[in-house]
Design a protein that fits this description.
Shape: globular
CATH topology: Jelly Rolls
CATH superfamily: Jelly Rolls
Strand content: over 45%
Number of domains: 1
Distance between the termini: 47 Å
Number of strands: 8
Structural class: mainly beta
CATH class: Mainly Beta
Helix content: under 10%
Low-confidence stretches: none
Order of helices and strands: HEEEEEEEE
CATH architecture: Sandwich
Largest sheet: 6 strands, antiparallel
């Protein structure tokens, strides 16, 4: 088929499976959309919470678009305030993580998909 329609909120929330549902929702519907070359994520960080870790990519450039709410994104050592419809382009090798504002933040993230291109960064907000 030449297209796929899928409601992103119906993708599995993997935050539940990994024990992070008290902080966030994390949905990665790439396979639900039959996407071969594009990665996509729907992320929701709850009010006053931070993602439990950061991540970075070796090759992939990503774009994050705030759909709802407010919060902050930490990019390496810089923290930036975000609001609805703000878009952030993130270059490869930049570590990133989100923090929810008073009502939380919901973000759509997308970019090229490269197998095994992601590295987790623990203790990112503590640095």
């Amino acid at each position: 088929m030449s297209y796929t329609i899928f409601n992103l909120r119906e993708a599995e929330d993997v935050a539940i499976k990994h024990g992070f549902s008290d902080r966030q929702e994390a949905r990665f519907p790439r396979s639900d959309l039959d996407a071969e070359a594009t990665g996509v994520a729907l992320l929701k960080v709850k009010a006053g919470q931070r993602q439990p870790f950061a991540h970075r990519h070796d090759k992939a450039e990503e774009i994050y678009v705030v759909l709802n709410g407010t919060g902050q994104i930490k990019l390496d050592d810089e923290t930036i305030d975000l609001g609805p419809m703000d878009a952030v382009r993130i270059a490869p090798r930049v570590a990133r993580s989100l923090q929810g504002g008073p009502n939380g933040i919901e973000v759509l993230a997308f970019g090229p998909h490269h197998e095994r291109d992601s590295e987790m960064v623990d203790g990112f907000w503590d640095e």
